[in-house]
Amino acid sequence: MQDVSRRAFLGGAATLVAAVAAGCATPDEPIGPTHVGLTFDPTAYTEKTTTVATSSGAKSVTYRFYGPVTYVANPVDADYQSLTVSVPISIDGRPVDAANAPIVLANSVGGYMPSSVKGSTGVGEQTMTGVPAGSAAASGSAAPSGEVASGGNTMLNGAGKTVSLAKLAVAAGYVAVEPGVRGRTLVNAKGDYYGVAPAAIVDLKAAVRYLRANAGRLPGDVERLVSTGTSAGGALSALLGASGDSPLYDSYLRDLGAASASDAIFAAGCWCPIADLENADGAYEWNWGTNSIAGTGKLADQKLSAQLRDKFVTYQQSLKLTGRNGYGPLTADNYTDYLLTTYLRPSATRFLTAMSAAARSAYLAKNPFIDFAAGTAFFDWDGYVDHVGARKKSLPAFDAFDLSAGENNLFGRGTTKARHFTAYSAARSTSGSKAVDADIPDLLNLMNPMYHLRTANSQRCRKWWIRLGTKDSDTSLTVSSNIAAAAAGLGDEVNHRMYWDQGHGANDDAAAFIEWVGTVTK
């Protein structure tokens, strides 16, 4: 990576730490020593008690709360590069030994914004900086339109109630770790954007290395780390799972003084991931191009939409993916059928089956595009797309011609707030360069889980939980489905479903996820 990119990444504040080991251990190798100052203190905790609402009722959890603890020796901004650890010691008065429990690493990133544990005094308190937890963030300097404001720790279930996976983890007897990370809007005194790509994923990797390097001192089993995240946080969770121990990140981690250890994780939980950004504009038009833009009642430019759809056709063909459940080769031509048969109709079937007969009849009367017979829902693609209604994003959805999208800010550099990251948008730019800068391709690889899955990274996680709502038009349904198909094609265990009639940031089966963590980690 060029020096100017490294300086922008470090915000002009950090220097190399000579004592950091250059290598990166694999999960099967002995974990190296921690960097000076990165030793976890198991005695530095505060005992707390909280009530957690679970699917089986409220639980009173007493736990040990550690932190915030800075997880790198040479932080650019310790307010963000710190984490907290919550370790249950009793649940409803019954003692719990979490010494060898799974560790749930719940990030709260939304919109590729910064998130912090500064001032946190308990489990589940991590939020995205400057935006109330659980709220929707505005476009512009906050999260992109429709983005959830807080990721892995604050989602919404079908009843509109918040879901904190960190709290549910401690209520299940697991250890919960909540990492802060830098994000795209952070600017230092010199005007440098120091939280742009790849800061967030590097910080998460550094947090994992800190946990692994402190095996034996830190409660919980570091070999059973399960990451969670939603939206941009879901993309980062997928990226963390796909890119374990990739040498592409080593120079960034050395610069920060990250611990000498593996950054591989055991499993990844990914809700509505905003990923594969360089191909997301084409995928979005393929999926939602015929829907009007929310708030306008107008279609996007159909000529441009068609051009972007053609790009998706070419990209999808290049992936050479096979659909799950023996579907066969997965192309743009058969992807609507794949989504209908693998995800959408089963999702509607589960939704309708769970209803009372009266409620189901009322729902079907309002939604005549669905044929429900013999306990199975049937509908076609056009009916489904009409049912979803207006698309949330304009054209292009991610690499905006005027550099106004949050993702443009994600690929800023130095004092430049936003840049184009696709040749298509750069050529049509109404603001900024007409060409993609030379460092962008490398940054895209650092930020895209599909890159690491396509190259079959041997240290990726092998267990995947992927979820999104069927009314989520923050990105194309193909994004999460391609991640699932790519991981399954490599032989990984993939649990991927969609929530019927739910939007962005939904989590309708949090209890099932917590149970899944226990099952896959044995």
Automatic annotation (TrEMBL):
<feature type="compositionally biased region" description="Low complexity">
    <location>
        <begin position="130"/>
        <end position="144"/>
    </location>
</feature>
<dbReference type="InterPro" id="IPR049492">
    <property type="entry name" value="BD-FAE-like_dom"/>
</dbReference>
<feature type="region of interest" description="Disordered">
    <location>
        <begin position="120"/>
        <end position="144"/>
    </location>
</feature>
<dbReference type="InterPro" id="IPR006311">
    <property type="entry name" value="TAT_signal"/>
</dbReference>
<dbReference type="InterPro" id="IPR048124">
    <property type="entry name" value="Tannase_B"/>
</dbReference>
<feature type="compositionally biased region" description="Polar residues">
    <location>
        <begin position="120"/>
        <end position="129"/>
    </location>
</feature>
<protein>
    <submittedName>
        <fullName>Tat pathway signal sequence domain protein</fullName>
    </submittedName>
</protein>
<feature type="domain" description="BD-FAE-like">
    <location>
        <begin position="196"/>
        <end position="279"/>
    </location>
</feature>
<dbReference type="Pfam" id="PF20434">
    <property type="entry name" value="BD-FAE"/>
</dbReference>
<dbReference type="InterPro" id="IPR029058">
    <property type="entry name" value="AB_hydrolase_fold"/>
</dbReference>
